[in-house]
Amino acid sequence: MNKLSFPVVLCCLMMITGISCSKIDNYPAPSATIQGSVYDAMTDSTVQTEFGGGGTRVKLLETSYSSNPTPEYFQCMQNGVFHDDKIFAATYNISVEGAFVPVILTDDTGKIITDSSKNIILKSTATVNFWVQPFLRIEWVSPPVMNADSSVTVQVRITRGTDNPSYKSNLTDINLYVSNTQNDGNNNYDPRYSKLTSYNGTDGNALLGQVVTITTTGGALPPQDVYFRVGARIASGLNRYNYNAPMTVSK
Amino acid sequence: MKKYSYIFLLIIITSWSACRNLDIAPKNIIQDADVFSTPEGIQAYMARLYSELPIEDFRYSPARGLNFFWIISPMSAITGEALSRDQTSAMQENSGVNWPVWSGCYGVIRDCNYFIETLPKYSKDFTSAQVNDWTGEAYFIRGMTYFALVKRFGGVPLVNSVLNYPGETIDQLKIPRASEKATWDQVKSDFDSAMNLLPDVNPDANDGSRANKYVAAAFESRAMLYAGSIAKYNTITLFDSKNNEICGIPAADANAYFLAGYNAAKMVEGHYSLYTKEWIANNPQAQYQNFVDLFLDPGSPENIFVREYQYPNSVHGYDAYNVPRQLAGPNGYSAEINPTLNFVDMFDGIPKNPDGTIKTLDASGHYILYKNTMDMFSNAEPRLRATVILPGDAFKGQSIGIWRGIYTGPVAGGISPLLPPGSKSQYPTTDIVESATADQTPYTLPDGSLMNPAGPSGIFTGDQTCAISGFSIRKYLDPNLPTSQVLENHESQTWIEMRYAEVLLNRAEAAFELYLAGQSGADYLNDAFNDINQIRLRAGAALLASPGSMTIDTIRIERRKELAFENKTWWDLRRWRVLDKEQNGTIYKVLMPFYAAQAGEYFFDARTDERNDVYTFDPRWYYEQIPQDVISKNSNIFQNPGY
C-alpha cells in the first residue's frame, strides 16, 4: 500500500456518500384539487351540516386499477362546501354521503336503483357539484331574539326535503344548539343552554311545516358572542342531522 | 488385497452415515405428537384456548380492550349504569391495547380449527368420549369467538379450516365478509355442534370453567336472542358488491332466532338454578346477603360458565379500582364505578314521584329531611343494596359516609331546592360548606360539635376520587379483603360470565318477543311472566301482578337491574338499538346528600352530573369500525357504514 492510497480512498468515500445525498427517492406530493358543493335540489342553497365525522363527507373511489378499491373520504365544510387540494391526480368516482337521500340509491336488497355519482379524470382541479334531497329543510322564520331574562328564543320552520317514501320516516329530534363558536352542532354545543327535544313515534311529525318556537334553557346566557343553530333529524340509517345556518342574536 | 479392504471400509462408513435420517422435526419446537397424544398436552392446548376466549371480564374495558389489567374507564361508565372520573362521554370500543379484537379472535378461530383437524389423527390414544368432549369444546370456543366478532362488526369472514400460506395464494386468502345472517348461523351451528358432542358434565373440570352441553345451550340462548333483536330492531344495512347483506338481517328471520333462543334457554332448565343458599322469604336482610354472596360463592348452582383467577398467575384489580374512597388500598385507586341515579331510579322500594323518579321534595316543594342518609332507602329492594353501596350503608364494618356538603342556611319553614328544577349550573356557594379534597377542614355545627363538610367517601368538589354520583359500587367487591391487600393485579374473584339468571331473562325476552309476534307453540306470555317473577322473588322485589301488565320494557328493565355492572348492559342496549336514544345529548343524574346543620338532618338533591358530561351515542357505532389494517391486508373486506 503506497502513500497515495489514503487520499484516494477518502475521495471515493466522499463520492459515494455525496451521491446518496443527492438522490430523492420519492413521488411528488398530491397536489390536485377536488372542490364543489352539496346543493338542495329544490332551493339551490347548500345543505348545511356539522363539521367532523357526523357531517357530510365526500367519497372517492380510484377506479383505474381495481373495480373494488378501498374508498377514501374527506369531510365537507359546515356550510355544505367541500375543497381538498391534496389529492393525487387519478381517475375517480365521486359521491357524497350525509343527511340526504343517498346519491347512489339502492333497494332493500342492495340493488342499485339510481346512481348520481360522478366519474372524473382528475388532472389539476375539478369542480363537482351535487344536487340532493335533504331529509329535512330547516329555515329561520325569524332571527334569534333576546328575552328580558337574557335567554334567547328562536323560530324555525322544518319541512321534508324529499318525497321519497323510504326517507320520510318519523321526525325524532329538534335541537337548538348554543355555542360560543360558529362551529355549532350536535358534536359541539354548550349543554347548559342548548335545548334538546326528542319525540317518540309519530309525535314529532305534527311539527313539520309549523313555526317551531324554541327557547334556550338554563337561564341567562353569558355576556359574550353566542351562536344559535337548529338541528333536526329523522330515524333513517345513521340518523344524521340537518341544520340551518348558525346565527347570532340580532341587536 | 489391502486396497480392497480400504474400499470395503469406505463403503461401510458411507453406507452407515446414510442410515441416519436427517429429515427430522426440529427438536426445539413442540410437535403435534407432543401435544395431541396425551391428556396433559390437550389440557395445555385447552388452557390457551379458554384463556383467550373473548369475554368482557374483570380485565376488559372499552377503552383498552380485552385482557388488560388497567381498568380505569369501566364499561359501566359508557352505559349509563355508572359515572367514572376517567370516562366522560359515550364511546365505541377501541381495538385493544394488549389483544386487538379482530386479529385476536381470528387467532383463536385458527387454534380451534387446528385442534378440530388435528385431534382425529391421534384419536387412537383416547376414548371416543374424550375425543368428542374436546372437539365439542373447540366448537364451543369457536362459536363464542364468532359471536364476539359478529356482535361488534356484523358479518365477518367465515374461516372454518386451517389456512396455509404459501399453500394457498394471497388471493385465495382474501376471504370476503359473509352476510350477517350467515355469521349468526355459524355461531348457532358451532354451539349446536358443541351441544351434540359435549356431555352433561365436563369430565376435566366441573366447576364451570370449561364447557358442557348446557354451557353451550346457555350461550346459544344469548346469541340467538341477540340475532333476533338485530333482525327486529336494526335499521342500518350494508350490502357488498355481490348484494350480500353484511350488516343487517331481514326482519322476517327474527322469529326463527327468538325461537332458537327460547328453546336453548329452556334446555338449561333443571340443570342449574338460582342461588338461594341464604335466601329467606320476607327477610330483606337475608335476601340482601344472598345476593351479595351469589357473586362470591364458588359453589353457586347459578354459575354456568366462569373465568377463574388465581394470585399470582392470573389476576385482576377489581377491588383496588372500585372500593369506596374511605377504603382505598395502598395503590391509591378507588371509586371508579359510581352508579347513576338513573340506574337507582329503576328499583322499587325508594320514595318515587309519579313519573318514577326519586322523590326528594315534599308536597310543599321543600326537601324531605332524614335523620340518617340510609333512612331514605330503608325499604329499598335488597338487590339494590347488594348491587350499590347507598350513602351511609355498611361495608367491611364501616359506614360508608357519602355527602356533598353542609347546608348552613335557615331551615325554618322547610328548605327550598338549591337550584331551579333541571338546572345544570353549579351549586350556589352561599349557605353551603364543601370540601375540595379528602383533606378536610371540619366545620363547627350549631351544637359545637365538629363535622367534615363532605363524607369520608365523598363528594369532593375538586377531586373525583370519590362517589361522584352519590353512590358507590357493591357488586363483586370482596367484603373480607383487608385494605392492605386491596391492590392492583392482586385480586382473584371468579368472573361469572354466564349465570342462570341470565338464561331465565333470555328465555323471558325471547318468549315475550314471540308472544308479541303472535307466535303459537307455547304459552309464551305466561312463560315470560313466570321467569321474571322467579328473578324478582329472589331479588326481594315485589312480584308482577299479572302477565297482562307486562311490556317488553318490564323485561328489559329487569334484565338491566339483575345483570348490572356485569358488562352485559352495553351489548343489550346496542342490540335493542335504543342506545342512541338513551344517549342523545344525555347528562346522567346523580343524588347529592347534604347535611342541614341547623336541622341536624340530611336532605337529598337529585340533579344532573355536576361535571356536565354529555353522552351521545353515534348510531354508526352499532357496527364497530373494522380496523384499517384488516382492510389494507384484505381488499375484499368492506368497511362498515359511516367510517
Give the SSE layout.
The complex is a heterodimer of chains A (251) and B (643).
Chain A: H1 5-22, E1 32-40, E2 57-62, E3 72-75, E4 81-87, E5 91-97, E6 104-106, E7 112-115, E8 118-121, E9 125-127, E10 130-132, E11 136-146, E12 152-160, E13 171-179, E14 195-198, E15 211-215, E16 227-234, E17 242-243
Parallel strand pairs in A: 1-9, 1-10
Antiparallel strand pairs in A: 1-4, 2-3, 2-5, 5-8, 6-7, 11-12, 12-15, 13-14, 13-16, 16-17
Chain B: H1 2-19, H2 32-36, H3 39-51, E1 82-83, H4 101-118, H5 128-153, H6 170-173, H7 180-197, H8 213-233, E2 238-239, E3 245-247, H9 254-268, H10 284-293, E4 303-307, H11 318-322, E5 338-339, H12 341-344, H13 382-387, E6 388-389, E7 394-395, E8 398-399, E9 405-407, E10 432-433, E11 443-444, E12 450-451, E13 472-473, E14 495-499, H14 500-516, H15 524-539, H16 552-562, H17 569-575, H18 579-582, E15 584-586, E16 589-596, E17 601-608, E18 615-616, H19 628-633
Parallel strand pairs in B: 9-16
Antiparallel strand pairs in B: 1-5, 2-3, 4-14, 6-13, 7-8, 9-10, 11-12, 15-18, 16-17
Helix pairs in contact in B: 3-5, 4-5, 5-7, 5-8, 7-8, 8-9, 8-14, 9-14, 14-15, 14-16
Overall number of strands of chain B: 18
Q: What structural class do helix, strand and pairing data of chain B support?
A: alpha+beta
The protein's oligomeric status is: heterodimer
Which chains share the greatest interface? A-B, 33 and 32 residues
- CATH class of the largest domain in chain A, named Mainly Beta
Number of helices, where a helix is a run of at least 4 consecutive DSSP H or I residues of chain B: 19
What share of residues are in beta strands of chain A? 35-45%
> What is the arithmetic mean of pLDDT of chain B?
95
Largest sheet of chain A: 4 strands, mixed
How many strand units of chain A?
A: 17
What's the average pLDDT of chain A? 90
Give the end-to-end Cα distance of chain B, rounded to a whole number of Å. 87 Å
In terms of DSSP E residues, the strand content of chain B is 5-15%
What CATH architecture label of the largest domain in chain A applies?
Sandwich
Termini separation of chain A comes to 92 Å
